[in-house]
Amino acid sequence: MTPSISNRIACLALVVSAMSAQVAMAQDFSPYLKTTGRGAYDLYNDTVLCNAVLERAFEAEPKSKQRPELEKGVNYTVNFALFLLESGNVVDMSGAILAPDNLPIDRRNARADWQAVLFSLEDEGEAPDAEIVRCLRLYGHDWE
Length: 144
Fold this sequence. Notes:
By secondary structure, the chain is mainly α. The chain has helices at about 5-25, 40-60, 65-85, 100-125, 130-140.
């Protein structure tokens, strides 16, 4: 290999590793979600969890000044979760590809899981504000 080719390969490897690090850091998963290392599956579960978080926040304070952002977030999380399922890339731990039919059940389960988290936060005297803010940051705005 000539020096210029090996330099190009080294630069390319550096760029790829830098991009991979940014992608890994860009995943802002919930601290209440046990990730599996399956990208689309983890993203789907985090999206469904955010749906439960935002729905619960909306129900708890329907006249909140954040109402428009909460509504956008609830709608976007449902649509994004459905998009992920329709892509055929969401593979669970048993190797099964999840179908759009899974969404209503997964939403119900996420609501139950979030309710359990709320109870534990309440027992510890903490509020769910950080998780609501995280989900709003990810999903509570217009997408273009």
